[in-house]
From TrEMBL:
Signal sequence, renumbered to the chain: none
Membrane-spanning residues: none
Domain of life: Bacteria
The keyword Secreted belongs to this UniProt entry's keyword annotation: no
UniProt keyword terms in alphabetical order: Hydrolase
GO molecular function list: hydrolase activity
InterPro entries cross-referenced by the UniProt entry: AB_hydrolase_fold, Dienelactn_hydro, Dienelactone_hydrolase-like
Name under which the protein is recorded: Dienelactone hydrolase family protein
Organism taxonomic ancestry: Bacteria, Bacillati, Bacillota, Bacilli, Bacillales
Residue ranges constituting the Dienelactone hydrolase domain according to the UniProt record: 4-190
Amino acid sequence: MAEILLLHHALGLTKGINAFADELRGAGHTVHVPDLFDGHLFTTIEDGMTYVNEIGFEEITKRGIRVASEFPREIIYAGFSLGVVVAQKLAQTREGARGALLFYSCVPASMFGSPWPAELPVQIHGMDADPYFVDEGDIEAARELVTTADHAELFLYRGDQHLFADRSLPSYDASATTLLLQRVLQFLQHLDN
């Protein structure tokens, strides 16, 4: 079974993030879900990003890296939206990563000063009309990453919601999340073989 470090989105460590982690735990995986916001929760992405800007994006990244240092290097990094930046950086630059799961976001690999490790498996999930994922360039970064990695998949779901797999939010899409979870569990099973 896999060991996963799961990093939350800009609304903080919501009940929906914990529920997602519990789904993975229910399949036998070990999932660590740190709170990079020290208990702060937000109701809008804008409010969450205001908080991130107040304490500094670099500080959020440092918190994620500090947390990761507490776990074995042979781990799978996963992130939702804001958490993708930290998860992608760790997967791409921390030796020993087993894989990456990037939800609702993807940044150019060049952002971290090195190419994506070709042998490192990755799955990217987003909605095909999500303005954050599509209009801000994440989908292009995801498509580029998929062409450079040996084991990479980009899954697009119909819809325009950003945080669609968080069941504690109005943006939750049950059918898309069910399919996303099936694909994630297949990915994790494949890594165990």
